[in-house]
Amino acid sequence: MQRLLRGAEHLVPEGGLEEKLALARREGRPLRVKLGVDPSSPDLHLGHAVVLRKMRDFQDAGHKVVLIIGDFTATIGDPSGKSKTRPVLSLEQTRRNSESYVAQATKILDPNPDKLELRYNSEWLAPLGFAELIKLASSYTVARMLERDDFTKRYAAGVPISIHEFLYPLAQAYDSVAIRADVELGGTDQLFNLLVGRDVQRAYGQAPQVALTMPLLEGLDGVEKMSKSLGNYIGVAEAPEVMFKKAMLVPDALLYRYFELCTSFPLGEARALIEQDIKEAHRVFARELVRLYHGPEPIQEAEARYDHVAKGGIPDDVPELTLSADATQDGVIWVCKLATLAGLSTSNGDARRLIQNRGLKLDGEVVEDVNLQVRLDAPVVLQRGKDRFVRVRL
């Protein structure tokens, strides 16, 4: 029970999970634990993994998890936390994204069919008739829907709310009816939707599910929610050396939270490590993260690469760019143009500012002259910051 509740933010009703577990034992069956995901992005990061890891905890406790790919609800668009109507995806887009999503999710989940049931909610939502839709809509009131914080703020501000947005939580709730969920998991931003599921299950004569939410993980900036668009993420499919490097960038103040939500590392040991030696605690976290997603073999090499670069070294596996001769003048090129072509700056002006701030290196040496002309008789290595490298050759 302690493991199932580790890191959890909300449990509704309080004590409800114990009751569900007791019922499952009496009936001699596993709980059906639901997670619905809209594959709006094909790539997963540690923020997504928080709730997936909780699903794995339920699997390890002997229960059946049901991963619902919201290919149909993604065509509506989840309004959770949105200040305006969210752009919708086509069914084809959601199906393409879901292939990558499932492949990455099963890095965390046990794919054994006895433990994982994969469903697409277009199975039951696409054929839902208008009469059934009216029955579903009648199970909830507009007043209750407007209790949702994001709807309340938009309504008060005069920001349009489309009727179809009210249908999203009802459609998600109907998923719980369709698969007869005992427990539904989600992030804290999904609590309202999970609670709607309880009411709709009652309306359809089912025992209401337990709602269990997990916190939204802050990104590497320590402020915003982890997001690929913000660049503050650690991807679950990233290479071991990239994962190790990013794990070392977790803010000190958030390291315990990352241990708690992103690993199964004993929390007492984690707290003691952080209090005794924060630098070593970062390394332990980085090693544990690489082990979870790539196994033990790459840990030593990933850590060695990190140390090599941290000491000013140039790694062996640097991305390469081959320039055509006409990009240079007799094999010579302006350093700002070179940095831009290498993708280390967005423009020559950006490269100039980068050099003025001592942020660009050429073959390990800081570039100080913004007018430097670089001869490409042999390959050169450009470096922006501590860990962005490009080897350039003609």
TrEMBL record:
Keyword check for Iron: no
Motif placement: 'HIGH' region: 39-48
Keyword match Hydrolase: no
Record Gene3D superfamilies: HUPs, RNA-binding S4 domain, Tyrosyl-Transfer RNA Synthetase
Positions bound to ATP: 228
Keywords of the record: Aminoacyl-tRNA synthetase, ATP-binding, Cytoplasm, Ligase, Nucleotide-binding, Protein biosynthesis, RNA-binding
InterPro entries per record: aa-tRNA-synth_I_CS, aa-tRNA-synth_Ic, Rossmann-like_a/b/a_fold, S4_RNA-bd_sf, Tyr-tRNA-ligase, Tyr-tRNA-ligase_bac-type, Tyr-tRNA-ligase_bac_2
Motif ('KMSKS' region): 225-229
Annotated catalysed reactions: tRNA(Tyr) + L-tyrosine + ATP = L-tyrosyl-tRNA(Tyr) + AMP + diphosphate + H(+)
Gene Ontology terms: biological process: tyrosyl-tRNA aminoacylation
A Pfam family that the UniProt record links to this protein: tRNA-synt_1b
The family this protein is said to belong to: Belongs to the class-I aminoacyl-tRNA synthetase family. TyrS type 2 subfamily.
PANTHER family the record matches: TYROSINE--TRNA LIGASE, TYROSYL-TRNA SYNTHETASE
Protein's job: Catalyzes the attachment of tyrosine to tRNA(Tyr) in a two-step reaction: tyrosine is first activated by ATP to form Tyr-AMP and then transferred to the acceptor end of tRNA(Tyr).
Protein name: Tyrosine--tRNA ligase
Organism: Truepera radiovictrix (strain DSM 17093 / CIP 108686 / LMG 22925 / RQ-24)
Gene name, Swiss-Prot/TrEMBL: tyrS
